Amino acid sequence: MTEAKADLFSSRRNNTNMGMIENELKLHIEMARAKYLKAMIEINKAAAPKWHKLRHLNSAVREKRVFIAFVGRIPAGFLVWTKDFYSHYFIDLVVVHPKMRRHGVAVGMIRAMENFCSGNKLFSSTNRSNKAMQKVFVRTGFSKSGFISNLDKGNPEWIYYKKVADRPTAPKKHSRPARKRKKSKKR
Ligand SMILES: CC(C)(COP(=O)(O)OP(=O)(O)OC[C@H]1O[C@@H](n2cnc3c(N)ncnc32)[C@H](O)[C@@H]1OP(=O)(O)O)[C@@H](O)C(=O)NCCC(=O)NCCS
Predict the structure, then answer these.
(1) pLDDT digits 0-9 by tens, 143-157
(2) How far is CA 65 from its chain centroid?
């Protein structure tokens, strides 16, 4: 399972060195589609039944703001992001099914998000009491960027931040649009 941790947006390509079982348990992350909503609701119910944020899940999926992680073929977790945090990318929610934890699923989804918003500032947050998520942020290279009081009584929300490196393969941001080709003269 450790091998799977580093795999982002992995497909079932390049797996000739993997054993059959390892291959079957490979971490795979993709943009969530409506057909996965049922699985995501099940994950959320098992992971954090008291949360009500899922009201927005439908629209987030429609707007392509949700990654879903599979361990092999099993849906294991999901990540929801927005671009509403002072116009910056913000990871709103990370949830992993209790039976799928400590296998790098959360880290894998955050790396996928970093790939997605390469070259940008990425923010997220968690409660002071959520030690597991704080450790995930440390593991993924985020640092604390202040806190917000008065959301949950006596449990401030820590804001986390990471400046995501540009990927060499990422499309250039301010590149000029390609010039139109001159029409060839009619003969
Ligand atoms: C927090 C949560 C998303 C972590 O998911 P996960 O897939 O188990 O996390 P990972 O396996 O990627 O963990 C990476 C590292 O973070 C640390 N970590 C994660 N969970 C931990 C825990 N419960 N206790 C201590 N350290 C923990 C470990 O260092 C871990 O690496 P290791 O397993 O090699 O030691 C998951 O526990 C969860 O869904 N919790 C309920 C929902 C929630 O609180 N979400 C966050 C708020 S948005």
Answers:
(1) 999 999 999 999 999
(2) 9
- pLDDT (mean) for 9-28: 71
Q: Which CATH number is associated with domain 2-163?
A: 3.40.630.30
Phi and psi dihedrals of 90, rounded to 5?
Answer: -140, 125
To which H or E segment does residue 38 belong? Answer: helix 37-47
E strands within the chain?
27-31, 66-71, 74-85, 88-96, 121-127, 143-148, 157-163
Please state which of the ranges 53-57, 61-65, 129-133 shows the lowest mean pLDDT.
53-57
Residue with tokens 């709103």: 92
pTM score, whole prediction: 0.85
CB-ligand 1 contact for 104 (6 Å cutoff): yes
**How many angstroms separate the Cα of 24 from the Cα of each of 18, 27, 157?**
9, 9, 38
Which of 124, 44, 141 shows the shortest CA–CA distance to 83?
A: 124
pLDDT digits (tens, 9 = 90+) for 100-118: 999 999 999 999 999 999 9
Nearest alpha carbon, ligand 1 atom 23: 132
Using the mean position of ligand 1's atoms as its centre, give its distance from the Cα of residue 2 in Å: 14
